[in-house]
């Protein structure tokens, strides 16, 4: 049973427009969420994170929103650039229990020039 | 910058062979992790370690073992490789306290024939 779900396997947007990547989770013990970006043949790199005490965190062109009641988070990229084309993974960490992250299945973003 | 290195980028092995994947991190991180990445399944945790000689099973430990004799090094062992272990293997590390952010190596793409 997937505790972190990314229901859109792929997304295509035009350069300069907004990209919105979504993630849902089922475990109410998750209290910290992260987004990773992965290029082919490279390891994932940390992008942005948010604690459950917040509902928004912003870093440059990247903003993560957290809706705890809906168990939903989203990553907004504005404006999108061709270099943003990659696979994006949502991940979550629980306040108790194991220290490892639980990852979603990823969304492949393609930004068209 | 945190550096996580993996011994091989690409490996081709035969069914039944014993396979060693090595991971080294240079930031004195306590936690180290092994994941495998498969299309549509995201990153799945195989094993992790929170201290030298300590290890815990992840979500898919069957067919794998690990070794952590030194803090900076975490090895993944496929005791008898099978074709269903063909995958991308990713190593990561993180601090024990504070940030839950994990830092990933470049990955090892393993093909078992």
Characterization of this structure:
- The complex is a heterodimer of chains A (113) and B (113).
- Chain A has 113 residues and is mainly beta.
- Chain A is 0% helix and 56% strand.
- In chain A, a hairpin with a 2-residue loop joins strand 6 and strand 7.
- The relative contact order of chain A is 0.34.
- The model of chain A has no long low-confidence stretch (mean pLDDT 93).
- With 113 residues, chain B is an all-beta fold.
- In chain B, 0% of the residues lie in helices and 53% in strands.
- Chain B has strands spanning 4-6, 10-13, 19-25, 31-38, 42-49, 56-57, 64-70, 73-78, 87-94, 103-104, 108-112.
- In chain B, the strands form 2 sheets. In chain B, strands 2, 4, 5, 6, 9, 10 and 11 form a 7-stranded mixed beta sheet that branches. Chain B has a 4-stranded antiparallel beta sheet with strand order 1-3-8-7, with no helix packed on it.
- Chain B starts with a strand and ends with a strand.
Approximate helicity band of chain A: under 10%
Instruction: Write the element-wise H/E pattern of chain B from the N-terminal end onward.
Output: EEEEEEEEEEE
N-to-C terminal Cα separation of chain B, in Å? 37 Å
Q: What is the arithmetic mean of pLDDT of chain B?
A: 92
Measured between the Cα atoms of the first and last residue of chain A, the distance is 38 Å
SSE arrangement:
The complex is a heterodimer of chains A (113) and B (113).
Chain A: E1 4-5, E2 10-14, E3 19-25, E4 30-38, E5 45-51, E6 56-59, E7 62-67, E8 72-77, E9 86-94, E10 102-103, E11 107-112
Parallel strand pairs in A: 2-11
Antiparallel strand pairs in A: 1-3, 3-8, 4-5, 4-9, 6-7, 7-8, 9-10, 9-11
Chain B: E1 4-6, E2 10-13, E3 19-25, E4 31-38, E5 42-49, E6 56-57, E7 64-70, E8 73-78, E9 87-94, E10 103-104, E11 108-112
Parallel strand pairs in B: 2-11
Antiparallel strand pairs in B: 1-3, 3-8, 4-5, 4-9, 5-6, 7-8, 9-10, 9-11
